[in-house]
User: What shape does this take?
Amino acid sequence: MPLVPHAFDANRHRNGCNRCCSWFFFVQYFGLVKKGYYNPIQEEDAFALPSYEASKSATARFQTARDQLNSTKDRLKWTPLWYLFRSLWTAFGSEWLWCIVWIFGYCFTYTLQPLLIRAILRYLENGFVDGLFTGCPPWSLPVLLSLDTMLMSLTMQHGWAAEICAAMALRVALMDTILKKSMKLSTSSRSSTTAGQLITILSVDIDRIFNMVLFLQWGLLAPTLIIIVCSLIVREIGWLPALISFIILFLLAVLQGRMAIYLRKVRAEMTKYTDRRIGLINEVLHGIRVIKAYAWEPAAAKSVQTAREKELKQLTWLLIFIAVNYCVMFFTPVVVGLVAFVLYAYYGNVLTVSVVFTTFATINLLRLPIKIVPMMAMRAVDAVVAMKRLARILDLDERPARVLYDEKDDTLGSICLKNASFSWSGTTSDLKHISLDVEPGKLVCIVGRVAAGKTSLISALLGEIEQTEGTKNVKSNAQKLAQKACSERNCNKHL
Assistant: This one.
């Protein structure tokens, strides 16, 4: 059953005003929410993605960006990490920049909220409206406050929606690129990486980059909100109490920065142990028959458990640092407010209702950016470590692309090797001085003892092993299918 057309496509027949209102207030999702309230949502109930948000489009944009920047990378000698970052920015940066529009709207409504609260409290104290809203009727203040709160929520949600779309496109493009890269690695590249590292990158590292992109807008939004809140506090209680409060805020921010540095080191160490544990588990699963035959289960379990204990030790330190960061996050607004009121009263000022509630409301607005900053720092640390690992994989050498020959070619199937040598590692030759001449359609059997190099020879003919000496001329479109993989999946009946 085809998916429901997305609102971007389904509402083209409606006038512009209705489409804008439906989009701005998320009206297109009301029917889906109502249906999900009564019955579980099925795949056919979901919206079809617009073409520009499809995974094929995201992967194509990322690959195009890499191709365009490849010559610049070689000329300027970029590091793999910087090349990856520039490629991601070129492919998905415009989608992220769209979030800035919503950031400006959110900052504007964010600033108005404490000002409206102050105007309402001043009206209750003095009986007239003063300040920024002088001349406005009293009843308009709570109406404006309600509208401001609604617009603040809507602009925030639209910003999150745009951020999630960009993050999802980036995540899909990275996963697709890594999967394709793993299929093209040269023999020397395969020897420098493991299946455990590739699994960790696909299942863990890309998710860390995804989580960082979700918080990327706060790199601009959090400092802006902190500056706005600080200026409002200075306006309300004066510069000296506010200055002391800002110094305390700065010291706590430095503490969080130091914690982020330690988090990065601990995260990097823990990732190494995670790779080691996953690699051991894969080795145990692949060799489970031998392990069972020789009763090596205790030794195998002990090696996996040892790797897990080292990983858990690093995880314990990581959770301790995260807990300290959260503690700093929660008590920062309370400490800043307490110090501000003590100093305000110490210099002979009167703590009126409007001053106390307005300042507390303003400081309470500080809680969100203060909460986001350590979370963003932790995700940034994780993302940098993950991007370094991912950039290393993408920078590995690939084997040459195979040439596909015409099936009607009379010479198709011919093999000619003259004094050829091949190497798995790219340095020491594993197959030396091989000469072989096979005519098309001729039946040839390769016989030898275990580990004599039968499979290596087939891999060499298919171009999966690096050639170090001699000449090779193989005209074939054949592929290799491992016997074990075929028997495990019972696919030999289809051959």
User: Anything to note?
Assistant: The chain has a mean pLDDT of 81. The chain has two domains: 80-394, 415-494. The radius of gyration is 31 Å.
